[in-house]
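Purpose: get a first structural picture of the assembly so the mutagenesis plan has something to point at.
Setup: two entries, given in the order below. No constraints added.
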Amino acid sequence: MGTANFVLFGVCAFFALAGAVTTVAAQRPLRAAVALLVNIISLAGLYLTLSAHLLAAIQLLVYAGAVVVLFIFVIMLIGPAAEVKGKGEGLPGRTLAIAIMTMVTGTIAFSLVDAAGNWLALRSNPDFGTVEALGAELYSRALVPFEIVSITLLVAIVGAVAIARHRTEGEITEAKAVHAKAVEVREEAKAEAEAAAKATA
Amino acid sequence: MNAWIAISPLLLLVGGGLLVMLVDAFTKERNDLATVTAATLFLSAGVSLFALLSGKDPVDVPEVFGAFLATDRLGLFFDVAIGLGGGLSALLAGGYLREHGLERGEFYVLVIFSAFGAMVLARATDMLTLFVGLETMSLGVYALAGFRRGSPRSIEGALKYFLLGSFAAAILLFGSALIYAATTHTDFAGIGATVAAGDADIKLLLMGLLLVLVGLAFKVSAVPFHMWTPDVYEGAPTPATTFMSVVVKAAAFAVFVRVVITAFGDDLSASSAGGWPPILAGLAVVTMVYGNLAAVGQTSIKRMLAYSSIAHAGYLLVGMAAASVVGEKAISAVLFYLMAYTVSNVLAFGSLILMGSRGREAVSFDDLAGVGRRHPLAALPMVIGVLTLMGFPPTAGFFGKYYVFSAAVEAGGGFVWLAILGVLASAIGAFYYLRVIVAMFMKDPVPGEPVAVPMRSGSVTAALVISGLLVMDMGLMPGSMLDLAIAAAEQLFAG
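Result (structure tokens, whole complex):
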């Protein structure tokens, strides 16, 4: 690994980690989304150090371009309600989660560092990661999975339509009943609160 | 040409799915969609069954197909299970959706394409096809689970399933990346060959195997990756639950078999000291015990059946673990069990659908109180359904359990204890399965509450008759199905 490559790796790795931690820890959803953007761009940089140029470009286009924008739109649509206040897991839960994650990540990291690096040999091929190499692979050897992906996309579209399409009569009646129940519960809570206020007064 | 014949069950489904989409767009009448969907799936299953029964060796296919999609007997066997389970679910949906005013054509399209994804998954011989098939199947099922938009439970279940399912898929993907790093192969045969030749990085390989197993255990809802199952099964429309419990489970176990036998069938990964057998045995123990114990306390039959499906995943894992010692026998037992479970579960969920009519679904034990005396004929499929899930002779479920446990006993050593535990767990199972029969025949409905009235639907009746006949057929003459399973397992080990 050359010095330039190493510097790029260090910078990208730092920002990827910082972005990831901020995404999880940020209180405000918008900050989390922006931190995610930082993480995604740094990951694209990491792909560059692995000479996966096409993947880096796709990472920027799809994730940084489309996915994060979608996130931000959703946060803006929901408005202030998107902010999570109050309690998450308790301290024991958090400690346990951190312990397990550290264990798993540690094991994976050590086995990766120790690995003989079989896959490093693949990169000695000068074409590795180029658009031509990937395209040739995709349209010749991996043709079958590539064709099946078309059905995957079709399923995703039909599924989205199934969930988003206008409701049938049965569903409207069902939703009305749920709404009525919600209103009822809210009114009851209100009445109770008022009664309690009166009692204290 | 050969390649087209070899994957004709898959092509039939794609064609049928596109046809249903077109018909749905141009017609107001939704009744026939269920029939067309079921016919497509049955046709696909029938073609595969014909190929299986003809007993010919699979045709040679060009490398571009063969490297990614298996054309062997195991694939054909699961085509039959998936086509049958999917078709029966579509028939159930025909009655259910109409009765509860949920009729929309997308349901059937999703069923067909999910079944297509399941068949791809069951035939996957490469991590790439595994992932693509898994996602095709899952995306459809997520939407099916949330199909009932008016119901908060349905939406909650679908969201949980989607989020947890995505995590599981990501873990599986990470695992396959590690396996690739360890072996520089993504095809199962290549992974197996590299490991056997001693060229693989063992630590990385085992880590990858562990993560892939986590992903698969999620899909078959093995404890402790089962958290989503009760909520999703309960919230989803019942035909979607049926589809999930039979098709998704069959396909996930199919790829489970391929991964552990083809990719990790070497002496090291399949040894009882390390590798997958102890992991699967441990999963089997907690899954059987937890699934059965949790099912006991349920008041909703739908939720009880969800826990029962967890328990059945445990019994199947006993067979998978035993496959490390008595390969062919254990795998053929697992295959038979999956086929028996498919028809049994369709029967149980189908009877639950039959019991509810407009405006009132039967879900709890109370809903079924006294149904057996008021409508004895409508209660019959439910009786057979719970008996076969319980493993009562002479039903399909009995021979499923018998073959799996006898394979475990034959494997010897610790596997004998697995079999004993399995039998004990089934005994707990008898308690909650029999409760259904007790509720139907020996309890009176709560006064003042509306009672369940069975629906009248030709397609639901048809599904119940078909699955009921198959349950009894596999229970009285298990030989023919077992022969198919043995032939499929033999070929897996020979190739």
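Chain B touches chain A through 53 residues (CB under 8 Å).
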